[in-house]
């Protein structure tokens, strides 16, 4: 396996291609992320952060350039294969947690497994229970998302992102709607799994406090990377 | 598959009121279909039973005699008019061979030979024109259930015994064991003994039919050794007209099906069937629209969920399947509930005695085929109705979908 989880080569993304209002959002982005790296992606609104994240998550395709996930080129793949790679390789955590209200916390966590292989096995269930226990939710596994607090929901979402043991975790403003204390707990979880599993984490955030605690900060302005440097001494979590 | 099924059930269960609404809609439609189908089916069976209760599916008889004028030649007088011939009572030629041929046809279930013709019944001052039917009772009973229609006397004919209809007995004022004179123009008449009285439920028959043995009938109608008609019963009575046409061609005899004789009955049945079909089709369409519109709303409401599932690796096909399954489940549950309601309606209808007909109550039954058919159809309609919403769900772009809250 390549050392790189993710590699972008001269990726451009335009919207409204062929129309009068064609706008290029990303102007040739080169970026790579190694296994076990913990990076923050920062930038003002409209700088292209979300667009970039959608590309990284294989939710969208670059207009030009190439994106390699675990060493494999993805631009030419069909929707089916991209969906499969997304399911196996990448975990997502969103700002609005995006749990499915009809399913319990445990079922939400098992959702990627159910999508991939149907009815979850006892081992998978045990795995999910252990993870939920690890994030302090053992007592809440059978509750519906509506019955959990915001921080609890976000923790369920993180466990869900990790259940299929992805190499890469993409988080979009994961603490955006949490209070400071809960945000710290959530961030600590990222750090914990990053260390325990050699998981590559890319966090999109507005919060400088959060960015300061990552190992590497990537700054995007107007569709270009203007800063990409390791943090000399990341504050420990 | 399991994933789609799981999601389908869970989404249906989460939105309980919506699901119940759409299931009730389907149920009401199916109940209407079940009730109407059962009612019309019962009515139709009743009409057919009444019609076929007293006649054969096909009657084969000697061909009509046709006028055969000499071929016109140049010397001959030109014929300007050909009179129809008066039809005499004729025996079927070579009827033994005809019977043997009929016995070899697999569609035929029973055969009864018959000598039949008109006569005048006389008792004292009263006279009545009657139809004489010389039959072998056991064989005839396979065609028309005469044994069951017997109200007095015994079901056997010896010597000059006759069975007469209850109306005729009333008009002539005779009863069991009484004597009766029958005259046919051909060979005079004879005295007969009433051995039994029947009521077939059709006034015309009950006052005109006189059954006797084949031999006395041959003597009375002056057809010694002859058979004037052969009655047939088929395995499938709706095949009667087709088979009659075939027999006409192959045997060169007259063959009349009950369908040709009772064209009005067939018309009524066809009209009922068309009505039933139209009701079913329109109710089916409206149920399909109901399912489709509710699911279409559901897809819009669930756009975010669909987006999340897609982001987590759910394939388009899995999403498509989940929504098709919702349609199928709603259709199936709705149809089962509808069948139950339909059966209750039928039971209530019968309990209230609304199923009166001219000859008493007729039976309405909900057949297992109807239930299974309705369930299958409704499930299929549900899946088809879900097709458009499901395709929309599968096509949702995950990014767009997640953006909608």
Q: Would you summarize the structure shown here?
A:
The complex is a heterodimer of chains A (237) and B (405). Chain A is of the alpha/beta class and 237 residues long.
Structure overview:
The complex is a heterodimer of chains A (237) and B (405). Chain A is of the alpha/beta class and 237 residues long. Chain A has one domain: 3-Layer(aba) Sandwich (Rossmann fold), CATH 3.40.50.300. Helix content of chain A is 34%, strand content 27%. In chain A, the strands form 2 sheets. A 6-stranded mixed beta sheet of chain A has the order 6-7-8-3-9-10, sandwiched between helices. Chain A has a 4-stranded antiparallel beta sheet with strand order 2-1-4-5, with helices on one face. In chain A, helix 6 links the parallel strand 7 and strand 8. In chain A, helix 3 runs parallel beside helix 5 and helix 5 packs parallel to helix 6. The longest helix of chain A has 18 residues. The mean pLDDT of chain A is 85. With 405 residues, chain B is α+β, with helices and mostly antiparallel strands. Chain B has 2 domains: 188 residues, no CATH class; 158 residues, no CATH class. Helices cover 55% and strands 18% of the residues of chain B. Chain B contains 15 helices and 12 strands. In chain B, the strands form 2 sheets. In chain B, strands 2-3-8-5-7-6 form a 6-stranded mixed barrel. In chain B, a hairpin with a 2-residue loop joins strand 11 and strand 12. In chain B, helix 1 crosses helix 13, helix 11 crosses helix 13 and helix 11 runs parallel beside helix 14. The longest helix of chain B has 39 residues. The two termini of chain B are 27 Å apart. The model of chain B has no long low-confidence stretch (mean pLDDT 85). Classes of the chains: A alpha/beta (237), B alpha+beta (405). At the A-B interface, helix 2 and helix 3 of A face helix 1, helix 12 and helix 15 of B.
